Every structure is written in C-alpha cells, then in structure tokens.
Amino acid sequence: MPKYTMAFSNPPLTFIAFAIVSLARRTHSFSYPPSTWLLSCRSQRYSNSFEVDLSVDEGKSSSESAQSRAFVVALTREKGKNDKLRDALLSSERIEKLIISSETSIQIHEIPCIEHADGPDTAILASSLSSNQFDYLVVTSPEAANVLASAWVEAGRPKLGVLAAVGKATGESLKENGLDVGFVPSKATAETLVQELPLSDAAKIERRATTVLYPASAKAPGTLQNGLEGRGFSVTRLNTYDTVPASWTTDQLSLAKSATVACFASPSAVKAWLKNTAEIDKPRAIAACIGETSASACRKEEWEESAIFYPDKPGIDSWVLAVADALESISSS
Fold it and tell me: Using an 8 Å Cβ cutoff, are 213 and 138 in contact?
C-alpha cells in the first residue's frame, strides 16, 4: 500500500490535497516494492501562489524523488485568475500518468505576468450604453466582460443589443454578471467571430448598417474592428481597459528562472514574460498557449516552433492538453 505524505502551510488548500489523495487511492494499486507518493501544497504569501508536487519513485524516499527531477509549470494570468487552469491540471489523468511513468515531480506556480488598468475610454462607457442602442455588443475577454458589466450597472442596467462573446470563458463572465449571451462563434478567435457574426435583421429591414459597440483592450489589434467594417458593419470601438506588465518580486523572478513550461493566455502575457525574464541566462520555457493567438505572439518573439504547444480550439480543457503535450515532449527528450 503506498504511503501518502502531505504538508500544508495554508489550511484552505487541504481540501484540494485530500481530494487528490482520495483519487489516487481509488485509482492506483502498487505491488512490492511499495512506491512513495509525495503531495505537498503550500501557499506563498509573496505572490499568493500555490505549489503542488506529485512524484513517484521506486526504492527512494519521496523527498529524494521530488528533488531529483522536477518540472515547473508557471501560470501567468493576472493574480487570482489561474484557479480554473490549476484545478484542471490537478485533475488531469494524462498528467498523472506522466508523473507515474516518468518518476517525475510536477510543480505548479502562479506567476502573474499582467495587470489590468483603466483605459482612455473607461469613463464614457456607461454613458454610451445608456444613450445609444447598438445591434451588437462584442466582448472578447473575461476582463472586457467585467468592465462592461460594471458600466452597465452604473448606467442603470439599460436594455442592450445582442451580446456576442468571443468564446466560452468570456460568455461565462458575462452570465456571472447577469448578462445573457446571444452569439458565440464556432471557434474562440476574433477572425472566426468576424466571419460568423450575422447581420442584424432589424438593420436589414431598416436598410442601414448593423451597429456594433466593441469595448476593447487598448492593446487589442484591429483584427475584429477592421474585419467587421470590411463586411459592412458600423463599429464603435471604446478602449475601456489596458493590460500592463505585472511587476515581479525577487522571489517571483526566482520561480520564473526554474520554469519548464509557461502557460500563456494572451500576447500581452507573452511580452510581459519576456520583459521580466530578459536578464535570465537560460533557455526559454516551453510555451503552452490557450490558443493560436498567443502561439502567434510566441512565434513573433522568436520562440522555436518545437517549443510552442496550443490547441486548435481555445478552452481550459484543451489548454491542459497543450500543457501535457509540452511536459511529454520534455520527458521524452
């Protein structure tokens, strides 16, 4: 019977640890000589980060095994928004099998690369919602959804046009804020949304252009706006928030130095990672991207193609598969 060892410095993480241990007990049996699993979860105050080590080794102590070979996965979304990916990684059977078969320790750290700030048009969003009626409001990120919802409440919850969300995560953010989603493209990219967003029936009847309000990041490229205007839409873009690089502590920089895989959800995170790691004298971490937009940003920054992993369709579950692909590429090399 395997031995389980757990160490905690933050009681709220206890539940996660016991859940993983329970899963391990239900799904694995070991023959002699017994294997030792080390599962340790600790919260680090300097970054509100978490670490999970899971290792298997025959004939060694659990601490020796975890120290002998460890892969470090960095979660780079803004602070507090990495929980869904972390939980999905912890429950991934594929990563669990990799840990067992390769006698590897996997460490997961939250190292935020970006922070959000007000954009130049933040102050006029609420008045735009209350004084204008748009056929569509196009939302392309969870942060844009939160900013829009806040302005909607400030404006007195006026009736809105059809809400178009670029993908599942953005749609969920809108729904959590009490806003119904009327359109989601088949693939979570701006290019697909541009191709698939239908013209408004009301606009057709009234023989006018379909109108769109696009509350965007100040750093968002013109892909969506230009694409819709090319199809005849009338687009009002408001730069309602900005994405800025997060400042790292010395401890966070030390964690980044040890990263084997960095998980990116936006081009801004890619650029911020490179800015903060510019002085690190070691090969770049392998990039596990949520989708092709972030992967393209890695290519532009001259990542090797063999060091970029991403799914065809963005999403948390498919992102976990990209992380597993990245880890397997290292394990087999």
Answer: yes
